[in-house]
């Protein structure tokens, strides 16, 4: 019980701290609002849960250990995707600069469930959290499958609870952003999105 409680605290703290997922949710909330940002929130939570489950049972580990170039390749792909996301955020239409606003604003591609879920596999912070969680909480002397299931289920709840405030904060901020202020906010979020990946790359 104590081990599960400790892992739950770890999962929540990992989910609620700044990173590519939360920067993306904040920008998404400001752009399309809370309701239309929920699919991305669920995609992040469930996508990461699937990721940690797969890696825990050993499939992901086998893939990465097959060739060191795979790790480098995934980092470069992740950086490319995040750079593309940052550009999309920085150049997204804002109120007073387009003929649409509010619910008419198009949702970014990674703002849907599948896009956000797939993004976890090239998110360096997600890989770092997976590695830390498995090293600290997975007991290889016991049956792996129940443990992997427990890790995944815990991260679903932690991801939803920890990331929701970022989406909500973005939604709240977005209500006061028009024209130039919205453009500046989007540009700042784009820079933060790229910066959030730097520690993982280094």
Structural summary, described in words:
The protein is globular and about 60 Å long. Helix 1 runs parallel beside helix 8 (144-174), helix 2 (20-32) packs antiparallel against helix 3 and helix 3 packs antiparallel against helix 8 (144-174). It is built from ten helices and no strands. The chain is 77% helix and 0% strand. The chain has one domain. Mean pLDDT is 78; it is low at 98-104. By secondary structure, it is an all-alpha fold.
Brief account:
It contains 10 helices and no strands.
> What is the N-to-C order of secondary-structure elements (H for helix, E for strand)?
HHHHHHHHHH
User: Overall 3D geometry?
Assistant: globular
Terminal Cα separation, in Å? 36 Å
Question: Mind telling me the C-alpha Rg?
Answer: 18 Å
What ranges have pLDDT less than 50 throughout 5 or more consecutive residues?
98-104
- Overall number of strands: 0
* Most strands sheet: none
Helix content: over 70%
Structural class: mainly alpha
Number of domains: 1
Strand content: under 5%
**How large is the count of helical segments?**
10
Mean pLDDT comes to 78
Topology:
Elements: H1 2-16, H2 20-32, H3 34-56, H4 59-66, H5 68-90, H6 113-119, H7 124-137, H8 144-174, H9 179-195, H10 198-201
Helix pairs in contact: 1-8, 2-3, 2-8, 2-9, 3-6, 3-8, 5-9
């Amino acid at each position: 019980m104590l081990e599960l409680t400790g892992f739950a605290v770890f999962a929540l703290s990992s989910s609620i701290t700044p990173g590519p997922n939360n920067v993306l949710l904040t920008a998404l909330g400001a752009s399309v609002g809370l309701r239309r940002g929920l699919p991305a929130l669920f995609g992040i939570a469930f996508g990461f849960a699937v990721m940690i489950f797969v890696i825990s049972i050993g499939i992901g580990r086998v893939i990465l250990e097959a060739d060191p170039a795979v790790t480098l390749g995934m980092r470069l792909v992740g950086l490319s995707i995040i750079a593309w996301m940052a550009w999309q955020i920085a150049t997204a239409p804002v109120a007073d600069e387009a003929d649409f606003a509010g619910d008419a604003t198009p949702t970014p591609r990674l703002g849907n469930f599948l896009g956000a879920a797939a993004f976890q596999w090239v998110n360096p912070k997600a890989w770092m959290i997976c590695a830390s969680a498995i090293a600290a909480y997975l007991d290889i002397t016991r049956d792996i499958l129940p443990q992997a299931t427990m890790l995944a289920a815990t991260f679903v709840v932690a991801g939803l609870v920890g990331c929701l405030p970022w989406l909500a904060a973005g939604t709240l901020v977005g209500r006061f952003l028009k024209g130039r202020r919205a453009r500046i906010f989007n540009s700042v979020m784009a820079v933060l999105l790229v910066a959030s990946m730097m520690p993982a790359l280094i």
